[in-house]
Amino acid sequence: MSDGTLDLFDGLDDPNEPQPTDHAALHDIDALFALLDRWVERGWLRALDRALAAFLHREVSDAPPLLLLAAALASHQLGRGHVCLDLAQTLAAPDLALSLPPEGDDLSDPPPLPSQILDGLDLATWQAALDHPELVTNGPGNTPLVKTESDSNVRLYLRRYWQYEQDIREQIAARLTDATDVTCRSDRGRDGADRRPDDTTAPPSGNAPKETTIPRRSGFSRDGADRRPDEAIDTTTLSAALDALFPTPTGPEPDWQKIACALAAHSHFAVITGGPGTGKTTTVVKLLALLQSLQLGREGNRSLRIRLAAPTGKAAARLNESIAGQVGGLKLEGLSESPEALKQEIPTEVTTLHRLLGSRPDTRHFRHHAGNPLPLDVLVIDEASMVDIEMMAAVLSALPPKARLILLGDKDQLASVEAGAVLGDLCQRAEGAHYTPATCQWLEQATRTPIPTDYQDADGQPLDQAIAMLRVSHRFDASSGIGQLAQAVNRPLAREHSPKEKKRAVRKVFAHSYADIAHLNLADADDPALDRLVVEGNPAGFLNQGKGRQHRGNELAPPTGYRHYLEVLKQQRPTAGSDLEQHREEYDRWAMTVLDAHNCFQLLCALRRGPWGVEGLNLRIAKALRRQGLITASDHELERSWYLGRPVLVTRNDYGLGLMNGDIGITLAQPHPQDPNRSVLRVAFPTANAEKPIKWVLPSRLQAVETVFAMTVHKSQGSEFIHTALLLPDAPNPILTRELVYTGITRARHWFTLVESGRGMLDEAVTREVVRVSGLGRLE
Ligand SMILES: Nc1ncnc2c1ncn2[C@@H]1O[C@H](COP(=O)(O)OP(=O)(O)OP(=O)(O)O)[C@@H](O)[C@H]1O
């Protein structure tokens, strides 16, 4: 398993042993459903996927087994982040189409594998089986399935997901072309809300949209001024404003932040991507100041209605904090005669996308849609890599045609857990920029920054002209191991000479003795080194015990573990007691301090189940903390109940309580309202509202939460912790990819510990890349 390909049964079967083939399921309906049942039983397929095949069979009894199998597999891909089934890819690597093997499956008496079932099947035969006009069409229509063909790719979609992809293409295309082209969106009718998206098989109601092709050439004219006639920006004015916002030249390298501002000011759709600390927030705050000042500079204009949003509550809270800081520090003297007034026009409040669109309980419908668009002129979405295809389609459809959409995010992070890696797909060509000569010439005028030839491309596509990649980290410099490690892990395999070289480059970073990274090899599952790490933070693993490190002129505290927040909890607990109303502020302050201290350390892992998954680790860590006297709880309480200090993660949006998936709270104690001698447990969540900074919730009201001593990397997206430890499991698993490791590393602000519980797992992970299947990558 060294070449980056998946060998799911490594060590379980002899790969040279010829596998028996089993083709009955391809011809016989009963055999097919018997097979699907066995796959569902093993957890290789979801019951939902089988149910779709059964539904199609009931509706159209002569649907061939090969079609039903493709439909079940297409449905299954949605649960794994892909919006469709790529037939050729599936034939090339059939076993990747299922969730094989589920964690903890010992694989005794396994059902036949897809590779056995599909052995010998060719693409033409499978494709021919999909020619069933009642169930499959090549585009608009009423069939539950859609097939698309381009080059050698044949893809099968559930109609709803094909429609999302079409909607996104169409809306982005409209924003990338001249204002007059925006009218093409009206073809689809203003019925975004009428669709029945919760019915997987139901086609969207109303008229199918006209497919929009995105023009091959950029709309940039020589000076760029006629691109958006309604909002034409004079290049000289823009250039002067950009100089005021970016007064210090960056040296010989182009100022990518300034370039990003110029590009985004010029388009109704823009993406600003970049790794951690490259200045996405800094740039967008300057961009908003720029747009607002240009707007207010036009006589009689009202200020722009700007909204900021993020996919999760946690991400929204983090952006809230950093935006507020950035706006406070903005220097706008050169941009406006009344800089303070201009600052007032830049919002600092960040909401979640669900809240922005107005989600309604128990339905996928939102209050805002094409028929009731959002009342805004500019929408900024941070952490856009976490936005799935369904949400992105909903946002785009609710956006007024003339509004600007600015997406911020790190294209290399793990994509959303739901289907569709929209940001990653849109940014496929971001590394090379591909700016056309017209764009370069205009950018050079506007930013007075020459664009290096490496980033120019006479064949650049319109989408390329709307994407800016920030390439310099201001958080991690060359002396930062976290920065170097993230870079080494993130380098695509295609750029290395061999997987071996990639592994060597990553290992070399650890060999370099950077002060901010540590590596821990566990001898076995019971190695107490892991308990020491989570309790104390393993400072001994860092150079000089983590002491004496400077950051921006201040000495950093050495890395900590969970002892830190539990001690803060104990030591700073208000003694005032009795009347809660009188002492509310004191309790709020306590909760804020504990939550801050909790943010000093987080253990991340890849899996959910097993000893190296969230479930096993949570219990192990709770017991280790109990041994140290840091928490007091019975076994039952540790496993199933509440105790002082229990940190919890919200796993489902709860609009009633105003809590979002991803929010973290800590269980604290408050005086009982009726009996001050007793205390009552309440979970404290940060609110990002300065006047009411803490939301106190009774544990019994929390329906979907889990202990979060260990958190999956997926759930950690949008969060950042002072010391992050990433634990890799002891056996290969398809979930271990370079994107996962990169996302884990980049959650660390000052300290990072990599924990390997099995030899070679880091090597495994960094040489495996996520392959997402969608048609959006072809959006040019
Ligand atoms: N051009 C710059 N020169 C110096 N410091 C900068 C510059 N741009 C950003 N910074 C600083 O770098 C840090 C990270 O910036 P910022 O928060 O904008 O990055 P980001 O890409 O949004 O980070 P994140 O990974 O948190 O999303 C901040 O402290 C910011 O003040």
From TrEMBL:
Its EC number is 5.6.2.3. Heterotrimer of RecB, RecC and RecD. All subunits contribute to DNA-binding. Signal peptide: none annotated. It catalyses: ATP + H2O = ADP + phosphate + H(+). It comes from Litchfieldella rifensis. In the RecBCD complex, RecB has a slow 3'-5' helicase, an exonuclease activity and loads RecA onto ssDNA, RecD has a fast 5'-3' helicase activity, while RecC stimulates the ATPase and processivity of the RecB helicase and contributes to recognition of the Chi site. InterPro entries: AAA+_ATPase, Coronavir_polyprotein_1ab, P-loop_NTPase, RecD, RecD_N, RecD_N_sf, UvrD-like_helicase_C. Residues 266-540 form the AAA+ ATPase domain. ATP binds at G274, G275, P276, G277, T278, G279, K280, T281. A helicase/nuclease that prepares dsDNA breaks (DSB) for recombinational DNA repair. Binds to DSBs and unwinds DNA via a highly rapid and processive ATP-dependent bidirectional helicase activity. Unwinds dsDNA until it encounters a Chi (crossover hotspot instigator) sequence from the 3' direction. Cuts ssDNA a few nucleotides 3' to the Chi site. The properties and activities of the enzyme are changed at Chi. The Chi-altered holoenzyme produces a long 3'-ssDNA overhang and facilitates RecA-binding to the ssDNA for homologous DNA recombination and repair. Transmembrane segments: none annotated. This is RecBCD enzyme subunit RecD. Belongs to the RecD family. Residues 184-199 have a biased composition (Basic and acidic residues). It is an enzyme of class 5 (isomerase). GO terms for molecular function: exodeoxyribonuclease V activity. Residues 183-230 are annotated as: Disordered. SUPFAM superfamilies: P-loop containing nucleoside triphosphate hydrolases. Keywords: ATP-binding, DNA damage, DNA repair, DNA-binding, Exonuclease, Helicase, Hydrolase, Isomerase, Nuclease, Nucleotide-binding.
